[in-house]
Design a protein that fits this description.
Elements (H helix, E strand, L loop, with lengths): L2 E3 L18 E6 L9 H10 L8 E3 L4 E3 L13 H6 E6 L7 H18 L5 E3 H5 L5 H5 L3 H19 L5 H9 L15 H11 L3
Parallel strand pairs: 1-4, 2-5, 2-6, 3-5
Antiparallel strand pairs: 3-4
This protein binds zinc ion.
């Protein structure tokens, strides 16, 4: 499973930068049936819109695109609590999509997120506001089946993808150009290593 990171720029109003600790994942269908309304199209929309709308991932039959870090709030649930506690995933539904493949991709993503975090709850957009969403899954009566599929993939993934709590900090340092040769997340640090890190932090 390959996730394409294409974040909304930080200065956009639909990326408020509010830190969240998500406890659920909320599933949507885009509601957009136009031909070509795939994940790539939604990624360019969400980066340029002035609407107060944003979510974390868009999934179609070939791509998974991430628009926001999972620890930042988006505006997708229609309720404050939903936005502040839930990761939003939009599944495309354009006329030329392979819907089964898109839903499979979404299930893979959800299982991956559950394995990576401690999130154990999958919600419909409808659970927050009553909106008829995810419309395709609801209309075709496949919501329960979809959720069961997520959990069974999760059962396969959970032991291999559970991330160490410190991994995110390690990755942040790498991203900022800090050279660290090994992760060894549970090994003790020596005084020498601490001195070296402090000097690097202070840019000495
Ligand atoms: Zn929705």
């Amino acid at each position: 499973m390959n996730i394409i990171e294409d974040f909304i720029p930080k200065n956009r109003q639909n990326r408020p930068g509010v830190a969240i600790t998500p406890s659920s994942i909320t599933v949507h269908n885009t509601g957009n049936v136009r031909k070509g309304a795939d994940a790539t199209m939604h990624a360019s929309y969400i980066k340029s819109t002035n609407d107060k709308v944003s979510w974390h991932y868009t999934v179609d039959d070939t791509n998974i695109i991430q628009h926001l870090p999972i620890n930042e709030m988006g505006w997708h649930a229609g309720s404050r609590k939903g936005n502040e506690t839930s990761i939003g995933i939009e599944i495309c539904m354009h006329e030329d999509i392979d819907m089964a493949a898109a839903e499979k991709n979404a299930q893979q993503l959800i299982a991956y997120l559950m394995a990576k975090t401690s999130i154990g709850e999958i919600k419909k957009h409808q659970d927050w506001t009553g909106k008829y969403c995810p419309a395709v899954l609801l209309k075709e009566g496949r919501w329960e089946q979809f959720v069961r599929g997520c959990f069974s993939i999760f059962e396969e993934k959970k032991n291999i993808e559970k991330e160490h709590w410190a991994k995110t900090y390690y990755q942040q340092l790498i991203d900022r150009g800090m050279v660290i040769h090994e992760e060894r997340l549970d090994d003790p640090i020596t005084r020498g290593e601490l001195f070296a890190i402090l000097c690097r932090m202070l840019d000495l």
